[in-house]
Amino acid sequence: MASAGPSAASTQPDLPSGPAVFKTIPYAFILPEIVCGTWVWILVAATSVSLPLLQGWVMYVSLTSCLISLLLLLSYLLGFHRNSENWKVLDSLYHGTTAILYMSAAVLQANATINSEFGPNAPLNYQLNCAASFFAFLTTFLYILHAFSIYYQ
Q: How does it sit in the membrane (predicted)?
């Protein structure tokens, strides 16, 4: 009987698929990452982009990360991973890299927020940029949590 316990535990999948994705840490972070990242690019797009080089990078990182995370979520929901250990490595590398890129985008968005304080249409653009900065840092935190949760799993 003692040998039946470990063998039963080893047959359980390590990677969730289907609705279990939303109940398993760190994979449950994917949907909030997508939602918060979507808010970043919506809020930046709603401003009059006064610094296109800075906010262009923010838009690129947020939109690309949102789309790739959506594909990753669909992959987990549909079970494309087939419980391969390589998916954990891919997921960890993706979320770690994206956390670094999002940190750079969040800092640039904060800089754009500071610069928009006294520009044309200052109150509205400043408020939108503040909200975009908040969501950029929140999304960065979610990607960092996801990457380290996989690493320590």
A: Multi-pass membrane protein
What would the pLDDT profile of 1-57 be if each residue is shown by its tens digit? 454 545 444 444 477 666 667 777 777 788 889 999 999 999 998 887 777 788 889
Contacts of 85 (CB under 8 A, 6+ apart): 14
The range of the structural domain enclosing residue 64 comes to 19-152
> How deeply is 23 buried, as exposed, middle or buried, from its count of CB atoms within 10 A (0-12, 13-18, 19+)?
exposed
Whether residue 116 lies inside any domain: the answer is yes
Cβ-count burial of 31 within 10 angstroms (0-12 exposed, 13-18 middle, 19+ buried)? Answer: middle
For residues 99 and 12, give the distance between their C-alpha atoms in angstroms, rounded to a whole number: 30
